[in-house]
Specification:
By secondary structure, the chain is of the alpha+beta class. It is about 45% helix and about 20% strand. Helix 2 packs antiparallel against helix 3. The longest helix has 25 residues. It holds the Pfam family AraC_binding.
Length: about 280
């Protein structure tokens, strides 16, 4: 089982489980010294944590060097093109492929390095705790039973929550409860065609202008942009995991007009919903 886990990022490996985790040790000219190249990404998320050496992630016209302690999060459908960094003799990284629980969405909005590939680097004093959690998750994920997978998912949830806790503790201004309530309200009303900023503001007892300013200040985007991001994130999941027609996917995430849904989807992802689904099915 251990060997299978270490080989599960090989090309053509079938990711059928809810969670698969492992450690990939890449040495120069070793058996794993090749680049992963998935232009259409995967159907689930991949979280990568560099332990030793350096890796490089390529994106059209850009690249990012992964160093010990760096964590990268690849969302569904995001391009994968990475391997050992040229000039470095090794790249050892822990990783987990997973399909998230529904309520994890807020915890998976990471600061991007480019496109939607998220980045996080724990401070030195937190590095060991994150690596230990990752290793416990790998150990649990290598078990064969139903409860082993549940344990691995719970450990992954701990890791995501630990990151959220560290971020909240390090910010000069912790996330305002009214902004958090606004996010929850928006998430609960994604399909509401009568949505407007005023309705959210009434819900959190603020004026629309004050909430607009506070929301952008703390999250870096407007409420409408944040709402569209949540809708498109859910649409990508549906396109990856169901055979619903494009129009039905749009309706499920709050778009009555298929053409408008396609325009917003392409603006956020760079491709149309049909192109996105076709690329995922080919991967």
């Amino acid at each position: 089982m251990s060997e299978m886990q270490n080989e599960s990022l090989l090309p053509r490996y079938s990711f059928n489980a809810r969670l698969v985790a492992g450690l990939t040790p890449i040495d120069e000219q070793g058996p794993r010294d090749y680049f992963i190249d998935r232009p259409a990404g995967m159907k689930g998320y991949v979280l990568n944590f560099t332990l030793r050496g350096e890796g490089v992630v390529y994106y059209p016209g850009r690249q990012f060097i992964c160093r010990p302690g760096d964590m990268l999060l690849f969302p569904p459908g995001e391009m994968h093109h990475y391997g050992r960094a040229p000039g470095c003799k090794e790249w050892y990284h822990q990783w987990v492929y997973f399909r998230p629980r529904a309520y994890w969405q807020e915890w998976l909005n990471w600061q991007p390095i480019f496109a939607q590939i998220g980045f996080y680097r724990p401070k030195d004093e937190h590095q060991e705790s994150f690596s230990t959690l990752f290793q416990h998750m790998i150990d649990a994920g290598q078990g064969m039973g139903h409860y082993d997978e549940l344990l691995a998912l719970n450990l992954l949830e701990q890791l995501l929550l630990r990151r959220m806790g560290v971020l909240s503790g390090s910010l000069n201004l912790p996330l305002d409860n009214r902004v958090r309530e606004a996010c929850q309200y928006i998430s609960d009303h994604l399909t509401d065609n009568h949505f407007d900023v005023a309705s959210v503001a009434r819900h959190v007892s603020l004026s629309p202008s004050r909430l607009f300013h506070l929301f952008r200040q703390q999250l870096g985007v407007s409420m409408l942009r944040w709402r569209d991001d949540q809708r498109i994130s859910q649409a990508k999941q549906l396109l990856c995991t169901t055979r619903l027609p494009i129009a039905s996917v749009g309706l499920h995430v709050g778009f009555d007009d298929q053409l408008y849904f396609s325009r917003v989807f392409k603006k956020c992802t760079g491709v149309s919903p049909s192109e996105f689904r076709a690329s995922v099915n080919q991967s």
